[in-house]
């Protein structure tokens, strides 16, 4: 188990990244940005008190019946909200297109997991760090979307609370795990090389010095006798 510690860490990161990639609206709880409305509710067709944005679409919670309405719009979607006093805010597909980087990071993590279990530690470590870089890019895009949504909600003129969704914090965990896994894999590679060298040294013991020549010559004399 200890020999595969780096691969197990990568496997955990891969599972988390996969959940982030599935995202809302497929899994409503794994959204990237969420908004809570208090007082004057906002909505496109009906009054809502929650608004969640994921990678592949968004979800809204209707006040009147408490039901969730999700729009599975696919990659690079646009959205719009309207407050009770008539203010409107819209965002184009350019703000959500970059969220696909989560899927790219997940693909790299799957490859990294397979390589890590084959004990190609150096390659796996480099792939792990590269996956971390892609995850960081996704988080930066997520941060930009969060700032955009927060600015829009303030212009709606409603009482609201805009926050990061679980998808953002799970991505942060993935980033940390990929960094740790890279170092663990390098340590495992170093230990594996040390073990090989130790085994070679035991098989071919080093010369013990000047007096070993006399012992070897004495042994040869006895053999000839």
Describe it for me?
With 225 residues, the protein is an alpha+beta fold. 56% of the residues lie in helices and 16% in strands. The protein has 5 helices and 7 strands; from the N terminus they run H-E-E-E-E-E-E-H-H-E-H-H. The chain has helices at residues 5-26, 101-117, 121-156, 166-203, 212-224, and strands at 33-38, 48-53, 58-62, 68-71, 79-82, 88-91, 159-164. The strands form 2 sheets. It has a 5-stranded antiparallel beta sheet with strand order 4-3-2-1-7. Strands 5-6 form a two-stranded antiparallel ribbon. Helix 1 packs antiparallel against helix 2 (101-117) and helix 3 runs antiparallel to helix 4 (166-203). The radius of gyration is 29 Å and the shape is elongated. It starts with a helix and ends with a helix. Residues 209-216 and 218-225 have low confidence and may be disordered.
Any chance you could write out the topology, listing elements then pairs?
Blueprint: H1 5-26, E1 33-38, E2 48-53, E3 58-62, E4 68-71, E5 79-82, E6 88-91, H2 101-117, H3 121-156, E7 159-164, H4 166-203, H5 212-224
């Amino acid at each position: 188990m200890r020999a595969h510690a780096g691969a197990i860490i990568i496997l955990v990161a891969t599972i988390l990244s996969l959940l982030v990639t599935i995202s809302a609206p497929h899994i409503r709880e794994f959204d990237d940005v969420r908004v809570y409305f208090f007082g004057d509710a906002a909505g496109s067709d009906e009054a809502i008190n929650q608004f969640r944005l994921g990678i592949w679409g968004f979800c809204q919670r209707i006040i009147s019946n408490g039901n969730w309405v999700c729009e599975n719009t696919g990659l690079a979607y646009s959205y719009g909200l309207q407050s009770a006093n008539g203010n409107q805010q819209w965002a184009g597909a350019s703000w959500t297109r970059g969220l696909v980087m989560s899927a790219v990071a997940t693909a790299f993590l799957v490859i990294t997991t397979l390589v890590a279990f084959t004990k190609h530690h150096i390659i796996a470590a480099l792939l792990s760090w590269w996956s971390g870089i892609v995850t960081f890019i996704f988080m930066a895009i997520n941060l930009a979307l969060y700032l955009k949504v927060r600015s829009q909600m303030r212009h709606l003129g409603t009482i609201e609370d805009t926050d990061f969704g679980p998808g953002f914090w799970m991505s942060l965990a993935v980033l940390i795990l990929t960094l740790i896994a890279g170092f663990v894999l390098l340590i495992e590679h170093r230990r594996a090389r040390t073990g090989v060298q130790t085994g070679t040294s035991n098989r071919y013991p080093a010369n013990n010095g000047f007096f070993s020549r006399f012992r070897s010559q004495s042994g040869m004399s006895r053999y000839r006798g």
